[in-house]
Structure formats: C-alpha cells, structure tokens
Amino acid sequence: MEPYKIWDTIDTKIIAILRGVKPSEVEATVIELISAGISVIEIPLNSPNALQSIEAAVVTAENYADAACLIGAGTVLEVDEVPRVKDAGGNLIVSPNVDADVIGKSLELEMFSAPGVFTPSECLKGIHAGAHCLKVFPANMMGPAGIKALGAVFGDKVELCAVGGIGHEDFKDYLDAGASAFGLGSLLYTPGMPPKEIGALAKQCVASFNAAIG
After folding, report:
1. Fewer Cβ atoms within 10 Å of its own Cβ: the N or the C terminal residue of the chain?
2. CA 57 to CA 204: how far, in whole Å?
C-alpha cells in the first residue's frame, strides 16, 4: 500500500518521535506504541544508529501490528538520506524544513513526505513540491490561532500536523483550529524511559485524541 494511503487509513494521527532511541530499545518501545494505538513512528536521524533503529522498528511493526504502519526518519536534511531510509525499510520522511529536492525524492521512492513549515510561504512551497502533510513547527509558538489562519488558506490542499510543545490536554484546541495530526516527542518518549511508562503515556495521548475528535 502506498504510504499516503496508509496515512488515510489511520484514525488516531499521532506521530511518536523517538529522538535519541537506541536500537536495543526499539522493539519494546514500538510494541508499547502499537499496543496503545499509535502506528506512525519517527526516528530522527541524529539518534544513535538511527537507520538500524528504523529497520528494527519496521520489523517489529511487521510482527506485532494488525495494520500497516508509517515508520521512518525525522530530521532528514539531505536528498541522499532519503534512499538510505528506504533501504532500511522506512516509508516516512519528516524534515524540519521545506526542501523540494528531499520531498521530490521521497515521492519518487513512494514514501510519505512531511516537511516542516511555519510561514505561509513555506506552506505553499511544500504544497507545490507535493508534500502529503505539513509539519507546523514549533506549533506552541504559533498556537491554535496561527494554525487556524494557515488552515483557512491551505486546509483544503493539505493536512496540518502540529508539532512542538503541545500536551495532550491541548489536542482539542488544535483540532478545532484545523490541525488533523500531532507529532509528540518528549511527551511520549525520552531516552532511557521504561517501556511500560511509554505505553501508559501513549494510551493517555490516544484517549485524549479520540475524546477530542468526538
């Protein structure tokens, strides 16, 4: 299934950002996330042995998930990083910026593209390049009002994912403003966090998301 179609099948659009995760932690962490209902997992490339962790996450999802998952890399800054993520089994490319070449390579390799934006000009550049979703970062600095303003212009063209400084208690405000997804980092995971704690936080976030969308 094409990654953009996987995204369309996901009801709870929470991206778990596992910055700093080690390969040895991946299996237990991913099992907890999947069990809680999170099926989109981002491992930033500045994490230790990130490609090895992505490969481990993909294998774990294949063994434990009931449905297709989006798993791949964050902090993708260079075009040549995209095929490396693909070779590791990943199908998700997340960047902190809008780089048309990175987006183009992601589309060429049939991967889900979510570049980072903050301004209307960046949104338009990402849309024109073919991004599947725009990562609004840092969303807490923009607030729901800023998301609403972006959504009023671009909401019929692309989905907005709010990332940065958002707690689960904020979900409803951002969803009402026009966001459809959230990227959660330290709210869900910090290096060395026990898997069961990750699972409990993930369940809380999923419950809050589902309550917010009614």
Report:
1. C
2. 22
